[in-house]
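Please decode residue identities from the backbone states below.
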């Protein structure tokens, strides 16, 4: 949530000041929506074959790698920037599409660990975490843009500010998306195989409780 909202906030200034093309903002918004619709029919077969964690992790690796590539290519045209970032948006779309399904898996895992089925508590905690992410992103976005020297009173921003805008729009999401990739791979335990076994173990546990 922090990364998504930060990108949205920074993109307003990026396309206005760096690319001098505010019309591209609406285009990138449309592309972001289109990538989700392209990803949706692919989710089920990929999850069936590889698993939720595995599919989502690869999506985040794609997203993080694409934004890192954008960071390393600062002299792109607006069209080139949008075309490359669309690939990153496509990778992120898998995470965005499946995140709520992750919550149901966590609920099952929590029940297995504690013997308690607490759907409301888990969903509430997740919803609260999203709201915290939104709140932090709102503050960080304004602070970061100010920190790089952006001055709304200037007709033309300094080159340092323009470079800062580009870096905020690329390296920050790259780091966050790659961090999520590593969290999924090394910390999140619910692999496809684990979920299959968890389903069996839960069924046995529920029989025992009866």
């Amino acid at each position: 949530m922090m990364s998504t909202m930060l990108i949205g906030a920074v993109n307003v200034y990026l396309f206005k000041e760096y690319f001098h093309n505010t019309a591209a903002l609406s285009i990138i918004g449309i592309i972001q929506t289109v990538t989700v619709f392209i990803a949706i029919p692919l989710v089920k077969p990929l999850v069936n074959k590889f698993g939720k964690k595995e599919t989502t992790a690869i999506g985040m690796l794609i997203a993080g790698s694409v934004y890192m590539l954008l960071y390393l290519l600062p002299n792109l045209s607006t069209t080139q920037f949008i075309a490359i970032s669309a690939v990153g948006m496509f990778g992120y779309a898998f995470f965005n599409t499946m995140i709520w399904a992750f919550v149901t898996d966590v609920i099952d895992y929590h029940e297995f660990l504690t013997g308690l089925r607490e759907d409301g508590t888990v969903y509430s905690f997740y919803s609260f975490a999203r709201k915290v992410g939104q709140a932090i992103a709102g503050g960080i976005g304004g602070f970061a843009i100010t920190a790089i020297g952006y001055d709304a009173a200037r007709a033309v921003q300094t080159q340092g500010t323009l470079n800062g805008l580009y870096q905020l729009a690329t390296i920050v999401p790259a780091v966050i998306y790659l961090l999520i990739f590593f969290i999924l791979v090394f910390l999140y335990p619910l692999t496809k195989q684990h979920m299959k076994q968890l389903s069996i173990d839960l069924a046995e546990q529920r029989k025992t409780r009866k």
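Observation: The chain has seven helices and no strands.
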